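Minutes, project huddle
Topic: does the predicted pose make sense with uridine-diphosphate-N-acetylglucosamine bound?
PN asked that the exact inputs be recorded in the minutes so nobody has to dig through chat later. Recorded below.
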Amino acid sequence: MDTTSFGIAIMAAGKGTRLKSKRAKVLHEIGGRPLLMHVIAAAETVAPPDRIYCIIGHHADNVRTVAVSTGVHFVMQAEQKGTGHALQVLKKHFSFTGQKVPQHLLVLSGDVPLIRPETLQQMCSFHLEQHAAMTILTAVPPNPTGYGRVLRKSPGDPEVLAIVEQKDLAPDQLATPEINSGIYCFETESLFANLSRLSDQNASGEFYLTDIAGLLAAEGKRVIAIKADHIDEVLGANTIAEMMHLDAAMRLATARKLMAAGVTIFRPETTVIDSMVEVGADTTIEPYVQLLGNTRIGQDCRIRSYSVIQNSTIGDGVLVRNGCILDSATVGRCAVLGPYSHLRPRSDIGEDAHVGNFVETKNIRLGRGSKANHLNYLGDADIGAGVNVGAGAITCNYDGVHKHKTTIGDGAFIGSDSTLIAPVTVGDGAYIAAGSSITEDVPAGALALGRSRQTTKPGWVASRKKKTS
Ligand code: UD1
Ligand code: CA
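Predicted holo structure (tokens), as shared on screen:
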């Protein structure tokens, strides 16, 4: 469909009083992404960013910071006197800046985040086909309470008489089932010509954009409604509970999409999967797993319960056992992690490597096939291939002021409970005896012992007993 005659306004200035939150409503997240970013993504399927106008006000600086990379315009509504006022501010913006007024305006609400591109397209085509002055996207949810209601001329008639807000419903209108989604198309001239006629003499003391429907209809202009196919896509997020309902719907949709692409997800309702996450076919995700941010997981992996993986890249055939935490880590194919491994930022785990129980890593490379299976801390280290890091061995990377690097060559053997005091280098194939404190470089192929020699006193126990009895 040709949408070149459309500009888009996104109303995102409101305070979100019902959230009882310090943060701007449109910055609250569902599916791991701020509400506003979902709405902008949907808008971008209809018009390019230079025809999208985001109306901001409450916590405007924070909202702008989050959305600035999208390249949309920002319009400041310093005082928020209602949705009608938001569009009055946009009208002023056009006359001040001289920016071209689009022939049609698609108006979106920053707190209605699940709207689908297909629905917006359908709505815009319907609006043009019907030569409407205003087209309202509606739905009939199980519980319409709280929403503005759409009064049609007669049931089934596309034409609308008015929208009445919940607080302003007359007793005989309370049962009206069809709600206003807060998403509209306008013929811009008709909208702009009527904005100054809005009044704030209503239950909220605000200028309602919804009153434009009645004003246009009374003028004999064509005001029509179109129902959305799915209820969830038009639901608003005014309270934390509503937001979590949308979050669950969105995550379930993400899980379904992954399952359709060959991923097995046991008990998908228990997983928390952000909408940007990618997972390859034949990977299995167990209950209570969280996959967050820009995480990418390959094929044929198994992610066991209670693992939380964020902004990480995992190759094919990796096993992540229970309870691992990964943040900005990279894991090569066929590696094995966990249970209870903690991979902190810039952990690069090689192919076939093993990182095991209660091992913490940070800013390291662990080479192909290397193993650190029990109780290690490995930080700021470059560890080669085929290295065996014994139980409890650690890198001492921090001297209280600076961080230092540990380098371990291919095939080295780091004995249990040794401490590698950085900066230090252990050469290829070198051996570190268990319990050593290593403060000096160890050449390739050498054995280093950094512990005091054992003293054994035969018969000591019996002789002490004699003395103390
Ligand atoms: C609005 C509609 C209601 C509809 C519902 C759907 C009005 C008067 N009512 O009610 O009919 O059923 O959406 O979700 O429009 N905003 C601004 N500036 C303002 C006020 C609000 O930009 O001065 C923004 C908000 O940030 C929000 C959107 O407009 O993103 C809607 O405002 P909100 O106060 O949530 O309206 P509702 O009461 O939900
Ligand atoms: Ca709302």
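Observations noted during the meeting:
- The mean pLDDT is 97.
- The pocket of calcium ion (ligand 2) is lined by residues 111, 236, 238 (CB under 6 Å).
No decisions taken; revisit at the next huddle.
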